[in-house]
């Protein structure tokens, strides 16, 4: 499996913006330079594992999201409830749920 560093940078930028943080905010919180954050987000630099973990901590997300696009949330109860409801849907409705969630995640509010 290869890591898509362009996607990784886009996910970092997206998460940063969701949290209403600037690159300066993230740089200060991680101890990295603003330029380095920008280079990672724009696919000009590949973050080390240590840097990636610092970004995960500051942006309150798991490495799974940045590396694979898989979001894991700590509210397992809510996810479990949603999962149980999705299991009640037929395949067509599950696809609709997937499209709806993708639309919500990609929506720029």
How does this structure look, described?
With 109 residues, this protein is mostly helical. The protein has 7 helices and no strands. It has 2 domains: 5-68, lambda repressor-like DNA-binding domains (434 Repressor (Amino-terminal Domain)), CATH 1.10.260.40; 76-106. The protein is 68% helix and 0% strand. The chain is elongated, with a radius of gyration of 16 Å. 13% of the residues are buried.
Blueprint (SSEs and pairs):
Blueprint: H1 5-18, H2 23-30, H3 34-41, H4 49-58, H5 63-68, H6 76-87, H7 91-106
Helix pairs in contact: 2-3
The CATH superfamily of the largest domain turns out to be: lambda repressor-like DNA-binding domains
Strand proportion:
under 5%
When the domains are counted, the total is 2
Give the integer mean of the pLDDT values. 88
Tell me about the biggest sheet? none
Q: Ends: how far apart?
A: 33 Å
- CATH topology heading of the largest domain: 434 Repressor (Amino-terminal Domain)
- CATH class of the largest domain, named Mainly Alpha
CATH architecture title of the largest domain: Orthogonal Bundle
Low-pLDDT segments: none
Order of helices and strands: HHHHHHH
């Amino acid at each position: 499996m290869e890591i898509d560093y362009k996607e990784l940078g886009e996910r970092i930028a997206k998460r940063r913006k969701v949290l209403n943080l600037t690159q300066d905010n993230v740089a200060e919180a991680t101890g990295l330079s603003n330029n380095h954050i920008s280079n990672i987000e724009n696919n000009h630099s590949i973050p080390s594992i240590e840097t990636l973990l610092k970004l995960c901590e500051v942006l309150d997300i798991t490495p799974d999201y940045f590396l694979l696009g898989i979001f894991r949330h700590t509210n397992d109860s809510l996810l479990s409830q949603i999962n149980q409801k999705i299991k009640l849907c037929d395949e067509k409705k599950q696809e609709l749920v997937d499209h709806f969630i993708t639309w919500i995640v990609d929506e720029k509010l």
